Give the backbone structure.
Amino acid sequence: MNFDFSEEQQMLKDSVARFVQDEYDFETRRQHADSADGFSRENWKTFADLGWLSIPFSEAHGGFDGGAAGTMVVMEELGKGLVVEPFVATVLMFGGLLSKSGNAALQDAHIGQIIEGNLQGAFGYLERQSRFEMADVKTSATAQGDGFVINGEKTLVANGAVADKIIVSARTAGEQSDEQGISLFLIDANAEGVERTSVRLMDGQLVANIKLTNVSVAADQLVGELGQGFGLMKAVTNEVMVALCGEALGIMQKLNATTVEYAKTREQFGVKIGSFQALQHRMVDMFMACEQAKSLLYRAVCSMDDGAQDAVEVEKNILALKVMVGRSGKLIGGEAIQMHGGMGITDELDVGHYAKRLMMINTTFGDADYQQQKFAALSNA
């Protein structure tokens, strides 16, 4: 099978790589992460000007229609720079829900603004009790007049602190953990009854807890069909999981390269530590872990872009990939920190920050253990 990138994909990959190399050194990244917005709006406008925000959207909506492969090459290079701009939250999650919603009015009103870099979005699906189960929804949406009234709370909403619009999951029917009866609504982040509390995660990402108290939303702001939101959520989160694994691959490649370079220069007992056979073996283990994750990533991406693939097999590929990335990330992050010694865990060195980001990717949508259980259940069904 040919895994070479097309000419367009290679140009896209090179474009992102040049930006990270020339404009996104570690200190610059820290300044953006520590800012009030948690990212650089100037960089976001640059992303729009370079066409990166259009990658996953169809040509009918003014997008590039890059598919899973196009998204992967962008995310891999963004991972190498630990880029904090909300590409995942706004473009892949918020934009992905809109593009699959079937609501032409919402698509026409918002997707173009996302591509132009003029709209920040977020998706609120986690709740305090839900852990990794997206179907565990206590937030309610009660029909009232020509619309709905939403009450509840969403936690750790990526980009929720600065989003202009937020898509939230709410229960319109069924019991707390039923997959049926979940609906998705598009709300204004500054609407009456919306209260946001900013939270900074261990990897520097700015998220928000969002409390919704009697928030009125019109019926035409329904994203997808009434009561059928879970299927839409699952379709989009599967795509985002693969994209995050692409980011993780870029991080693991960066950690491997940084560790090898450090081993060539750091001296102990009068010799370079890279000459120690035990450390050479550990660096080979890091390289193998990265290559295994890369192979499963390519498998998942190819199966997603191949419309003839069985849906169950595609999902199994995605789950297996998430498991492998979680385990490989833990190994590579831990080894990179250890081989850098005490400096590896300090805030002054980038190694610890890359490792923290790998930890957060592992927990997003469910960690490796959780996804392995899902894989086993799907295989035995």
Notes: The chain has three domains: 7-120, 122-228, 230-380. DSSP finds eleven helices and ten strands in the chain. The mean pLDDT is 96.
